[in-house]
Amino acid sequence: MVKAALAGLGFMGKTHLGIYLNKLKNVKVTAICDGSRETLNMKTLDAGGNIKTGGTTVDLSGIKKYTEYDVMLKDGGFDFVDICLPTYLHTDTAVKALDAGYHVFCEKPLAGSTSETERIVKKVSETKKLFAVGQCIRFWPAYTEVKHIIDKGEYGSVRYAEFARFSGTPAWAWKNWVLDGNKSGNAALDLHIHDVDMILFLFGKPESVKSAGVFEKNDSISHITTIYKYPDKIINSTGGWICSESFGFNMRAFFILEKATIELDFSRDPVVTVYPDNGAKYPLTLPEGDGYYYELKAFADSVENGSPSGIVTAESAAESVRLCLAEIESAKKKTGIPV
């Protein structure tokens, strides 16, 4: 059994809390921290967000409640800290937790700049504590099952792939921080980074990127489209949050291999269909559960066993931020950027 402290109880914090309380038997939440006392006394996990996770009734009696993060760290009584705070708070809170001797799970993106990610990576190396980042698509069954097919090579190499992530404008964030590009990196760094991270996970670092973006009056990007240069394949991705509210949210991907085509689309049932060159199309059978569950399970197991899963590291998360920032630079300069 491992003990967890959770900092930040917005959409993602409530999602994590529900998983800890209701799904992970080897985790006990001993402390929660949020600036709102009303939130600390919540009775349900109702929250906004682009993926509905349910409004389960919760009983938080027996869990210590804090409005000050530093006080929670000083009091202790837990093995790791799960940081679900706004992006611009990630660096300081992660470093403080590591310095205090705790393992850390930090929501994505790791931070908003390369200097901040480097600070975290250095601190993780110095403290030798376990550290992971919420790049949940690396754990999402639809994507992981496709990765298994690609890695096995049964249908040959990938020749073309595209990734897409569409959402209405997020209105659930505390004080609308997510719409402030200086605090969130806007859609490019907050939403699109999921597909950027999966591209790195599947194909490694590209030679260069060339991007175009939809810009708002404050010069932040609300939608971005990128072509990634690889020597042996074509990869592109697009994502943002300028869809109409009635559209909701969807994520999808499309792969053309030498001997098959694979379609992944969360607006369809089945979510993943394989179309072999020889033979009938067939759906992929996916494990139950989502990427949020599997990423937290992997980290809790790592803390319990004292061994990292290695699926997401501080370094890999920093690389995803760096690539996203290169895309933003490319969109602003309207030119390709070597990476």
Structural account:
This protein is of the alpha/beta class and 339 residues long. It folds into two domains: 2-135 and 294-311, Rossmann fold, CATH 3.40.50; 137-287 and 320-338, 2-Layer Sandwich (Dihydrodipicolinate Reductase, domain 2). 34% of the residues lie in helices and 26% in strands. The chain contains eleven helices and 15 strands. The strands form two sheets. A nine-stranded mixed sheet has the order 14-13-12-11-7-10-9-8-15. Helix 4 (90-99) runs parallel beside helix 5, helix 5 packs antiparallel against helix 11 (314-333) and helix 9 (193-203) crosses helix 11 (314-333). The longest helix has 20 residues, at 314-333. The radius of gyration is 20 Å and the shape is globular. It starts with a strand and ends with a strand. 43% of the residues are buried.
Key structural traits:
339 residues; alpha/beta; Rossmann fold; Dihydrodipicolinate Reductase, domain 2; 2 domains; 6-stranded parallel β-sheet; 11 helices; 15 strands
Brief summary:
By secondary structure, the protein is α/β, with parallel strands linked by helices.
Which CATH-level-2 architecture of the largest domain? 2-Layer Sandwich
Order of helices and strands: EHEHEHEHEHEHEHHHEEEEEEEHHE
| Biggest beta-sheet profile | 9 strands, mixed
| Helix percentage range | 25-40%
In DSSP terms (H or I, runs of 4 or more residues), the helix count works out at 11
Overall form: globular
Set down the secondary structure blueprint.
Layout: E1 2-7, H1 11-22, E2 27-33, H2 37-40, E3 64-66, H3 69-75, E4 80-83, H4 90-99, E5 103-106, H5 114-127, E6 131-133, H6 141-152, E7 158-168, H7 181-184, H8 186-190, H9 193-203, E8 208-215, E9 221-229, E10 234-243, E11 249-257, E12 260-265, E13 272-276, E14 282-283, H10 291-305, H11 314-333, E15 337-338
Parallel strand pairs: 1-2, 1-4, 2-3, 4-5, 5-6, 7-10
Antiparallel strand pairs: 7-11, 8-9, 8-15, 9-10, 11-12, 12-13, 13-14
Helix pairs in contact: 4-5, 5-11, 9-11
